[in-house]
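Dissemination and training. As part of the outreach component of the grant, students in the summer workshop were shown how a complex can be specified as a set of sequence lines and then modelled as a single object. The example used during the hands-on session is reproduced here so that future cohorts can follow it. Participants entered these lines:
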Amino acid sequence: MTGSALVSLLTLWMLPFFSAIVIWALGPQLRRAAGVLGSAAVLLSFVLACALFGVATAPGGLHVTPLIGWAPGFTFGLLLDPLSLVWVLIITGVGGLIHLYSIGYMAADKAVARFFAYLNFFVFAMLTLVLSDNLVGLLVGWGLVGVASYFLIGFWFYKPSAVAAALKAFVINVFGDVGLMYAIFVLYGATGSIAYADVFAKAASLPSGVILTACIALFIAAAAKSAQVPLQTWLPDAMEGPTPVSALIHAATMVTAGVYLIARFAPLWNASPQAQELVGTIGAVTALLAAILGTAQWDIKRILAYSTMSQIGYMIMGVGVGAYEAGVLHFFTHAFFKAQLFLGAGLVIHALHEEQDIRKMGGLRRRTPFAFVAMAIGTLAIIGVPGFSGFYSKDAVIYGTLEHGHPLLYAAAVVTAGITAYYMFRMLFVAFGGHYRGEVPEARLGMAQREPSEPVHAREGHVPDWVMQIPVGVLIVGSIGAGYLAIGGAQSPWWRFLSSLYGGAQATAPAPISELLSSLIVLAIVIAGVAVAYYRYGTRSATASAVERLRGEALRMPAVLTNAFYFDAAIELLFVRPARRLGALFAGFVDPAVIDAGVRDVVWLTGAAGYLFRALQTGLVRGYALTIVASAACFVAWFVLTGAAR
Amino acid sequence: MTGFDASPYAALSAVMFFIGVGGVILRRNPLIMLMSIELMFNAANLALVAFSRAWVNNAGHVFVFLVVTVAAAEAAIALAIVVALFRRSTNVDVDEVARLRG
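and obtained this result:
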């Protein structure tokens, strides 16, 4: 390890933090400069991360330890190996692009400095999460990204729905934090260390029960952060935040922290087949359920939110069954095309003055052609059309489930791919095809009557379009090209890049069908999904009668879908309501009858004692003197009688 | 042993001490009470130096200085209290000054 590498690593880690503090402190004075400063800090971090590529891929990576010593056995260091490098590059690279985009998107917002301070703080927290070389540092980063997410979801704090969504996200994330903390206790208790290196070195010799417990606790954390069933309900609500936030935190980076967690703790998962089974199953269930829910959404950001959840389900499935390279690859490609989809949606929302309902869109391919191109390419990438990045990563994950002997997960993954194609093209056809429906009254589209609301952005400060278009353009390049790294399977640059971490992991079962056949099956299903979407929304007769059709679909939407499979209701019933009851019990009984009553009893006791003893306070000085003399006389008598004076 | 007989000094000290005690308990004038307290201090001092001489131990002498110092401090505070009392009311009977009765 060279000194300059150490300095670069520290700088790239702390730069967003200091930038956040500067923006926070100078705040209103900065105005437009806040965005430039914040973007520059993150992009500089990206440059430094690129410069460290060679050091990080060297054997052992770049390991700085101990950087800070907390207590004997508790030292904090930084670890930059290929796995954390992937995340660092995405966090700072895609994150930097989203920062740039935000300069345009948030230009009219009064609190733009606060926005960039939060965004920089998030980048710092996320870097802490992935760069930590130990469990406690991981937990710190884990908690900080949760806080940053809370700040940013509730960024428009004057909207009650945003505040509620922020709170929900935070509470569920803290539930996950508790899981992570419990895993740390278990692992520290079993190995006596919090450093990854020590824990993994002893992983093979731990009793399987301990590993399973730790894995399940870790997975609770991963599921809460990555919106996996049954802790997924916060993610769709988190779309209340500004669109760049959705792109950065709730699509590209933070929600993939669970994938990182499982990929990082691969030695533990490899030692526990039951835990792998659990994770793979949950991932598949999430991918499938979220895709089904994606077909029933009208809000363009909620469609993307469910698709994010579904794609993270793929990643979790991949890393869960042991196909780590494939899962991490899907994270890598997904970051590009999902950020691009969100930023494209942001362009649309921006152009339509905060309209997010696709029923009120239509015909946008002519109104916002650039956004249409971005959304179309993102859609082709996410559904896995050959030549686009999603094809390579998604196929690797889907085939990985088969290679590791999980035919059921394979089936779920293939079906999900078809549904994904359907709902993404549904969005594309409804929003961009046909004719513009913005002037059609809500009732005719089957929408609930809306309160005329204050526009969030006053349309004053105008920023040239290219500020928002250039980042999207760069992301388009990424979402087409990112998958080419993985052409050639196990001999591809991607597999060799991660081989130092997962080189030993081999396929456990010979796959019954070849990868080519698998790709063809997936492709056929995808084409079928697109065809259904085209038949329902894309044909000439469908676009001609779009208003009536959309209204009919909205009115006939099954309740199970509009209620998102009743997860919210179940959580309300099982946790929120009992918690409220418990609160009412404490407020109605425990507080007044136990705590207050106890305090009152102490007060009464003190008063009674005072009433008794105040008789001694006569105020007669000579009486006191007599008491002193009498007491002294008693002492003297006692000394004389017992002979203690001798 | 030096052959020094401390008993007359001890007897005088005891007499002075009980005169002081009687003065504090029986008199009502705060000034007289203060003087009685001083008397008790000095009785104690007398006993200290007498036994110190008898047992050839200088600790008693040293302790007398401490007592004198404390007595001076005590007198300053006590006289201040008496002056304050006298300002509030011209009454100098300590039994009448019983406002701190609980």
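Confidence is low (pLDDT under 50) at residues 457-461 of chain A. Students were then asked to discuss how this feature might be tested experimentally.
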